[in-house]
């Protein structure tokens, strides 16, 4: 039962349970600002990746054991193994400060060390 998330889809209900969805809670132990309870939010990794997908954010992926090479592009889809389909992908050589367009790629989740929104 593999699940692939795409831009038009939503995470299935199994990923929206209280343990697997964004967890919101308030309590008497939470910090209070102007006598209001502060809401604490926990975001799971799958929800953050899905948000990048929905917003069509340009992301930069740092690769495991290849600190000089990074991949940048827009996520088109991903699965439970964090394999990513990336469109308009570019290879970024950090030390040389060069970029090379590589088009649409499939990046295996094993290679991902860090993923961040580039703001572009």
Automatic annotation (TrEMBL):
GO terms for cellular component: cytosol; spliceosomal complex; U1 snRNP; U2 snRNP; U4 snRNP; U4/U6 x U5 tri-snRNP complex; U5 snRNP. It is found in: Cytoplasm, Cytosol; Nucleus. CDD domains: Sm_E. The keyword Cell membrane does not apply. Keywords: Cytoplasm, mRNA processing, mRNA splicing, Nucleus, Ribonucleoprotein, RNA-binding, Spliceosome. Pfam families: LSM (PF01423). It comes from the Eukaryota. GO terms for molecular function: RNA binding. The keyword Lipid metabolism does not apply. InterPro entries: LSM_dom_sf, Sm, Sm_dom_euk/arc, snRNP-E. Residues 46-120 form the Sm domain. One of its GO terms (biological process) is spliceosomal snRNP assembly. Belongs to the snRNP Sm proteins family. Plays a role in pre-mRNA splicing as a core component of the spliceosomal U1, U2, U4 and U5 small nuclear ribonucleoproteins (snRNPs), the building blocks of the spliceosome. This is Small nuclear ribonucleoprotein E.
């Amino acid at each position: 039962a593999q699940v692939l998330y795409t831009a038009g889809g939503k995470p299935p209900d199994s990923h929206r349970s209280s343990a697997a969805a964004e967890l919101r809670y308030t309590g008497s132990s939470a910090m209070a600002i102007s006598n209001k309870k502060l809401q604490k939010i926990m975001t799971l990794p799958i929800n953050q990746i899905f948000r990048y997908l929905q917003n069509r954010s340009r992301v930069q992926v740092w690769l495991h054991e290849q600190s000089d090479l990074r991949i940048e592009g827009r996520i088109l889809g991903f699965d439970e193994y964090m394999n990513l389909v990336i469109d308009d992908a570019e290879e970024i050589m950090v030390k040389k400060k060069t970029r090379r367009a590589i088009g649409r790629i499939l990046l295996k989740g094993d290679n991902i060390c860090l993923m961040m929104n580039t703001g572009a």
